[in-house]
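Subject: Sanity check before I submit

Could someone independently write out the structure tokens for this chain? I want to compare against mine line by line before I put it in a report. The sequence has 480 residues.
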Amino acid sequence: MILDNFQRKLRREAQLWRDEGLISASQYQQLADRYQFNNLEAAVRDRSMMTAVTIGIILLTLGMITFVAANWLLWSRDVKFIIMMSLFIATTVTGFYTWRQAAVGIPEGKKPRRSQRLLGEGLLILATMFLGVTIALMADAFNLNGSTPELFFAWGFGVLVMAYSLSLNSLGILGIILIQIGYWTGLGDLRYSTDEWNWARLVVKHMPLLSWLLFVPLAYFCRSRWIFAIAAFVFATSLQLNLEPVPLSNLSETAPWVASFALTLPPAIFWSYDDLLFPTINYRLFQPLARDLALIAFGLVFYVLSFRWVWATTSYNFSSASGSMNLFMSRPIIDLGILSGLAVLQWLFLMRQRNNPIRREVVFNLPMIATFLGFTAIMPFWHQAINPIDDLGVFAFNVLFAVLAWGLIREGLKLNDRRCFWGGMLLFTLQVISRVLEYDTELLFKSLVFVMCGSALISAGLWFERRLGSGSKSSGAKSS
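---
Independent answer below. Compare away.
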């Protein structure tokens, strides 16, 4: 739509330029050929056809669903199975044929092929909806006592297979969302239920490892930064939820080293991640994104550990017998072992690549990252296993949070990167405001802090933008 508006405005302006004599007829024709003015009407016609077809498909789908629902109780189990599978297969085949024809068919202009591709992709998404309905209805028809997590896991893994087969971003994201719905609905059973184990509870328990092994390769199949970022988010959040590392005083159901692994593994894996670890990959597609995610993970960990309630000391009564048994039954210890081995492998590979540093190591070099990881791993373990360090831990992670913010500001200044500069400024502001709100301070002091933070942000922003403007002017003068 944005491209169409640009082409339409350019055609109107070019016609004015031609009529006013600013450009010749041949120059206007060159612009028309370059920006495909003649295809604008065809694009509008295709878009109208696409809208009509989409609405028609939706109405047909609603009609079929209503027909099935009206006769569902009258049909036998075999008829129900045949009808639902026929709808799923017919929609999948039609969607695949339409999408494939647009992908490898004879080029007839970008707009018609794009509309056809979107139609095929929409039909494939509709087929995934039929897949979920088929699974649910067949479980009811065959009296299968499946839980809600099992339904969404089966549905999500089926969609994930389709995403791997077709390398479609939309199907990949939809499959991850469905699996996450199953994970969140089954998380309570993992923590509190004492029933027998089933495959859905195993998936919930090992979601950190499964998310990294299943979703990250899918990002390469689809060449999607979105899928990689979502996979990293699912991996980090599921690891924290399954291990429950905070508050650090909670030792009745876990071992003192669990918090160190839970808080250290995500940034360690993200920072050392390298696409070249895959044998068939010879380019770095996601490494810069992974390092950005590592800094985000460091920021979240430092921010959480900078609060006093996280370090509040209570009774230390971890039992090595019953506690260890509960630990291995409810915590993904196998995942920790495999992911720790992966982190060690990535860091060894990173050490071999030190002769070719990437852009991020302008400020955040290996010693600084190693320091971050060392403090994150050692201090929670020391607090839980050796001696409580309440105030020292709060102070240390406030310092680390400030160092991270300072590093982002410094990198933004060195590389003229707005994201890094503003990220560091916002971290500084967040730290100051959090400390003011956490401790018992008067309203007058809080208002003074808010005014100072706002003034500092405005002044720093204006100074940084003037600096960027003067730098661009000086570089333009040198080039001329």
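---
OP: Matches mine. For the report I'm noting this point. Residues 443-479 form the longest helix (37 residues).
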